[in-house]
Write a structure and sequence with these properties.
Order of helices and strands: EHHEEEHEHHEHEH
Helix content: 25-40%
Largest sheet: 5 strands, parallel
Bound molecules: iron/sulfur cluster
Structural class: alpha/beta
Distance between the termini: 45 Å
Strand content: 15-25%
Length: about 180
């Protein structure tokens, strides 16, 4: 028997708003679950991205070394990779830190806050930030783009249905944030 397409979502440098919009599919999540086999997502307790995924929606920009490693793995194991939302497509909010030096960002976001909270400092548990935040397409080939901050549930549903049906979509991404 032919297996259902394997489906995944992944969360890089984003606020999770795109995943919240995905959850807004509401009862259509049940419809989607009937059409695909959801193999990996922040909503599942799966630690390793599996081989042989048919469609992956990637939220967020590439901001640190963990994102970079995860995105390369996802690309190698996914047939159709889709950039979900403006952070993935253009860099958007996540790329605003490109206006500053990494050390200044770390100092402001972690060290100063640690001092203010009376926590002895540093950022030892933070994955190493890249010098610049990158769009998904700056790192790997992207097959489909769904802009929006976040894209609406309706847009996500149509987008996934099109991908499942193999219907063509414009593959052009905006250049902001590059
Ligand atoms: S595109 Fe908007 S909603 Fe989606 S992760 Fe970025 S900031 Fe959040």
């Amino acid at each position: 028997m032919k297996r259902k397409p394997w489906f995944a979502t992944a969360w890089l440098g984003g606020c999770s708003g795109c995943h919240m919009s995905f959850l807004d599919l509401d009862e259509r999540l049940i419809e989607l679950a009937g059409l695909v086999d959801i193999r990996y997502s922040p909503f599942l307790d799966v630690k390793e991205f599996p081989e042989g995924v048919d469609i992956t929606l990637v939220e967020g920009a590439v901001a640190n070394e963990d994102h970079l490693r995860d995105l390369l793995t996802i690309r190698a194991r996914t047939r159709i990779l889709a950039a979900l939302g403006d952070c993935a497509v253009t860099g958007n909010v996540t790329a605003m830190r490109n206006l500053f030096q990494v050390e200044d960002v770390l100092g402001r976001a972690y060290r100063e806050c640690d001092v203010a909270r009376g926590v002895p400092g540093g950022n030892g548990n933070v994955p190493k930030l890249l010098d610049r935040v990158l769009r998904v397409q700056d790192v790997v080939a992207v097959d489909r783009f769904l802009p929006g901050c976040p894209p609406s549930a309706n847009a996500i549903f149509e987008f996934v249905m099109d991908a499942l049906a193999g219907r063509a979509r414009p593959a052009k991404a905006a250049r902001f944030g590059s």
